[in-house]
Prior knowledge:
By secondary structure, the protein is mainly alpha-helical.
Amino acid sequence: xxxxxxxxxxxxxxxxxxxxxxxxxxxxxxxxxxxxxxxxxxxxxxxxxxxxxxxxxxxxxxxxxxxxxxxxxxxxxxxxxxxxxxxxxxxxxxxxxxxxxxxxxxxxxxxxxxxxxxxxxxxxxxxxxxxxxxxxxxxxxxxxxx
Length: 146
């Protein structure tokens, strides 16, 4: 598999992992409380940011079409920050649309912070996975766009 294809598949992780978390929460009753807490965070991340992330990922992948792997690596490193910034803009638009009746609440700070925390955690998984797959020859170092 090419590195570009790997990054295209990896863009689905922030949707796929919370779906697995939902499944574990729904079908496993004997999980430790700490595990349940993290599964709830992951599941909530899909509920709160799933649609905005899906739109962001699709737009980003469309803009990256026919770009070299180095561009994918660079954008991957910037993506959590870009998504958090867009998420703040989206929150502000929703806040204004629904009347902006009170002060901006703490979610304006909490949700973007979680975007960064989870985004860079996913990114760590992606780059560790890339390194492991390269070591086993599953991802080649060819610089051709696929």
